[in-house]
Every structure is written in C-alpha cells, then in structure tokens.
Amino acid sequence: MSKVEHLETIIEEFGPHLHDAPFEGWLSDRVIDKVVPTHCPYCGVQCGINLLVEKDHVVGFEPRYDFPVNEGRLCPKGVTAYLQVHHPDRLLHPLIKRNGAFQRASWDEALDLIVSKFKELQNQHGKDSIGVYSGSSLTTEKTYLMGKFARAGLGTRYVDYNGRLCMVSAAAGNNKAFGIDRSANPWTDIPLAEVLLIAGANCAETFPVLNKFLWDQRDNGGRWIVVDPRETATARQGDLHLQLRPGTDVAVANGMLHVLIEEDLIDQPFIDARTNDWETTRALAARYTPDVASQISGVPAEKIVQAARLYGRARTGMIMHARGIEHHTNGVNNVLSYINLVLATGKIGAPGRGYGTITGQGNGQGGREHGQKADQLPGQRSINNPEHRRHVCQVWDLPEEELPQAGVSVVEMFQKMREREIRGLISICNNVMVSLPDTNMVRQSLEGLDFYVCIDFFMSEGARYADIVLPGSTWSEDEGVTCSSEGRVVKINKANNSPGEARADWWIVQEIARRMGREKYFTFNSAREIFDELRVASRGGNADYYGITWEKIEANNGIFWPCPTEDHPGTPRLFEERFYHPDGKAKFHAIEYNPPNEVPDGEFPLILTSGRVVYQYLSGNQTRRIGFLVQQCPEPYVEIHPETAMKLKINDGERVRVMTRRGEGVFPALVVRTIRPDTIFIPYHWGEELAANQLTNPALDPTSKIPEFKACAARIEKIHSRRLPIMGQQRKGASLSEVQRG
Ligand code: SF4
User: What whole-number distance in Å separates Cα of residue 689 and Cα of residue 695?
Assistant: First the structure.
C-alpha cells in the first residue's frame, strides 16, 4: 500500500494553489505599523528587503537602498517573496496521517507520537536507525541546531543537508586548494577585475541581482569569458562563449593552462612563494594542447587560446563558478582545474584578483559551516579529528564517547533507507521528491520507511509521504543570521508571529530532543541563545564566528567571517597574506580529464543537463504557489537544438517523451539555437510526472558526494498519440485562474 493513497485530496487541501494577493487583498488604506529590515529568503545574493507589517501581518515590501549589495534592486522572486507568509496553503496545525489521510492533531499528541516511535525504532535497531535530513535555506542558528540535534539529541551518525545537492563540490575544492571553504573575495572586487571567467553559472537567471556587479565591471571596460553548454542570458552578454560539451570542464581548463604556460602568462614568483605541487600540474598540462582540449570538449581550439590569452594577459581577473561545473561526478576536479588557473596567474588575494563560488540557496554558505554536514562539526571542523571532537564536546558538555562518528551523504542515506539500515527519518526545509536525483528510487526509500516526520511551512511533494507533518515557520517569523555567497553574515529579523499553531523551527526541534530525554543539551530560550553557543563552538575553527554579534552585523550591514574577536572587523578578502593550509600555501592539483558517469550511446544518444529558471526557487515548494511567478513559467520544458528537432521531426511546442535509464517524462519541446545539438536541457523545479529528476543520474562525485545532475545519457521520442498528459496545477482540468484561491 502506498504512503500517498489520496493524492488528489492532499493537493486539494494543501496545494500547491496559486495566490497573488497580500493578506486581505489589495487595499489602498493600509496603515503600516512596522517596517522590518531583513533579507530576501531565496538565493545566496541575500538582497536587503524591508517587510511592511500591519497588525502582525506582512502585507508588502520595499527593496532596501541602504544595503550595499542590492541598493534597491530585487528580482522577480524577491518582489513576490512576502506573498508566501499568509498564503492560503500555509500549514497551520500538526498533522498525523491516519488511514492515508492527514488529520489535525495537537502539538502534544504529535510530539509524543514522534518520540515514542523514535525510541521504539532506536531500541530495536540502534541509534543510527533514525536519519536527519536538513536544509540550507534555514538560518545558521537552525543549521547549527540540526547538527547538534542529530548528534546530541538523537545520537545518530546519519545527518546531512540539502546543500549536498548544491555547493559541496565547490566546498571540497576550496578546502583542497586553499584549506578553507569560502569565496575568496567580496563582490565589490568584481568591478575591479579586467576579465571575468564565469563557468557554469547563468547569473542572469539564477543570481539576478549579482549582475549589478558584473555590469559595473563591464562599465569599467571589463570583458567576460563564459563557459557553458548553453548560450544562456549570461553567455549572450559575454565577449567569448566556450560552449563546451557538458562535463568536459577539466579539458577546457587544462587547455587554457597549457596556453598560459606556453605563452609565459603565468606568475612564477607567486607560484614559487605561495603554492605547492606546481611541477606535477605543469607536466600534466603539457599534454592538454588546445587541440586535445578541443577534441574532448567540442570547443574550437582557437577559442580556448583566446580565452587563455584574455585571462592571462589581464592585470586583474576573477573566476566565478556555480552548479554547472559542480553537479558532476567530476565536480571537485572541475573546481580544482579552474583554481589551477587562478593560482598559476597569481590572480588571488588582492583587489580585483580573485575567485568565488556562487551559492544557490539563501544560506548555502552558512548552512555548510556549523555542523549539519555528515562529516562536519561547528566552525567547519571535522568530526573525524580528535581535537575537533574534544572542543565541541566541551562546548556541549557531551561525553566524547557519545558523539557519533561521521555519517554519509543524503543520496547514500536514501540508499540505506532502501536497505532498511535507516528506518525513521526527520526532515526539515527540503523537498526530496523534487530535488534528489532519480526520484523513482527516492519514492521507494520513502515508501519503505517505518516512520517519517517532516517539518515545513508548506506541504511539499516529499512531505506527502510523511506520517507526521509539523507546521514550521517561514523566514519572516523568526530571527537569526545567514551567510551570503560572498561570506557576509547578515541578520534576518522577525516581522510577524507564525499563523495558526505553526511554531518556530528551532522550538520544534528542541522540543523533540527534550522529550527524548536530552533536555540537558537543549536549554535555548531564543535564537539569540543558539547563536551565542554557536559563536563559542566555532571559536578557533576555520569558520570562526566568535567575534560576530547580532548588533555588530546590524551596525555594519553584515560581517565577513572569519572574525575571531569582538574588536575584529571581519575578513572581506581572504588570502591577502596566507592560505589556510598549515604552511600558509595553496595547493595545485594535477587533474586528468575523466568523462561523466554516463556518456551517450546508440540507445541514449543525447546528453541531458538540468538547471533553473529565474521565476522559480529550487524545488519550487514556495514559488510554485505564487501566481505571478507560475504565470511566467508554468511548467518545465525540454530545450532541443533545431538540428536535433528536425532529425526527430519534432516541432516547437510539441510534447515529447524524454527517456533515460532511470525513467521517462513528457515535456513540451522548446526548439532553440542556444543549446548544443548533442545536448538537451530541462529545468528541475517541479515534482511528480513533471520532475526532471525522474531522469537524472544519482552517481556521485567520490569526494563531495554530489550527484551528477548536469550530464546523463538520454533520448527523445516523438509522441504520436494526440492525448496530452495531465499537468501540475491543472491536474483536475481547471485553468490557472480557476484554481486560484486568493
Ligand atoms: Fe532574492 Fe536572489 Fe532575487 Fe536578490 S537576486 S531578490 S536574493 S532571489
């Protein structure tokens, strides 16, 4: 029997429904009694936003002109974010599933049931039979709490977070090369760079307000090199577009390094003074001539030469990348091969000379700093390091032998669910049925669980499989900090109380731990108390927050970590004098090209890549309920090059079947010249039969354990039947306006 027996009823009750209006509608006589300065809940740019509050309801917004990152700018998601706060789909009461239907329950009833089930499972199958899956759109206080909840509250080793699907290849690459995981430069360095190399990052759609800095750089006479399999809105604005075959970044970067060496565009004094392992990297690059790199990547050799000269001859320059190079089984190697270019030219540690990864989630950076990763403790400490374990146990007053060892990544956790090693799951702030790869296998994992608890403020596609759903808080209902993509810690402020019986996430998690008998370790009365403990726990670690206070953040529009003492101003630019390896030097890595886990063949002749659109945020659990955003992009599509479409006799707009070794889905064809003929693209923000992740490959990078979302073998078939599939919110034959509630 499926855990989701009454799907139509669940959708009817909990959505997603479209909603376009603030609380009580569009009124002209509102009396705003509070203006709360905070930040956008969505991407890692963390734009400043004022929430307008009337009688404890968020009824409007203003962009913040005083926040130096966005200076009054917001993107389509930012301007509609406030509409989620009082959305009719908000979860208002704890829900317990009985006979396949969610029924309202009291907090005591729900929490007591959770505790009795968790205790029963742990008594029968051991502490590790419960898994914890967290998120990176939470405040940093909550992410810290989730790591502590798993280790000190439940005593399980199995905890991980959804940044595993996002930034971990960049994190691992940064740690290997620089000894620390953070973007090297503040964004104010971008306009100072003569050349930007943007790899696998469609900033124009996925980090829209970051473009302000890119355009300032262009206004200063700067040039852009864009490396991307698609001619994205960002690539179209660049000076040089290297339209590589997905998954071949190492070949392109090694080819560029070859040219830099051949044409003496490297910075030998910098290499000698500040790096290690150059000679092996130099020897490897000798084999990657532009012709060799071209054969692998499909980028014309002369473009690789042009790119190397443009970057190498510039006095200043920055390399920035995002998921396009990171979502691969070679994700860490892709990152390291671009870092080799940075180190070889000495373009780091100075104004306009730098490197950065662009985080997708609002707190993608902060969420990977304080211990909710499978192998991490607060302050970017390692759970495998005895000294690090001792420090954190002292802060928590936890006997060292009670601190579990490292767990595994989330995709591996879902495998362990299928193997019945993990039998219970508690998740917060994620939507596994949209965002994990190979959703058919994910469904099997959820169906096989003995007990699943989900904390969220909307009923996601993943939450439908839960036995208990607890109504959590949205970003305007709690306070805390996040860390933006540039390493700036900013303050999220509370604007309103949660509606109905929804509660602050940290209260819910702490209450479960307390009822599990672990109240000694969970005595927080506020998010501020959690932050103060986090500061102490992070002290002396790489991500040292000890010197950061909420007041200091507010007074300075953010503080860049590391910030070890209260009189320390923070560290906007890293590596000016030393890197974070013990000898103070950075490391080159000689990276050989390896193909993706799956390459095209006779049966599946195309490469499927996936990504995002400007109107949706990640799994879409928030943005697919906002009518304005859905109307701009109501459903996913498959981009196909005209040559490929012609061969398959596919017309623009026609629905086609896309198949991989994991599954199949039906999508309208978008025939565009902006994609390579050997590649197709589907945005991934939707669930059920519209999920791009029905198709993607769960193969993992061996170091970062990120799945290969960006390249798998696929084929397209023309559908000869005239019958159209039932789609998303039009599932019951209603038009968009008919299902609109507000
Ligand atoms: Fe929000 Fe990012 Fe858009 Fe800024 S750019 S408004 S942070 S989604």
Answer: 11
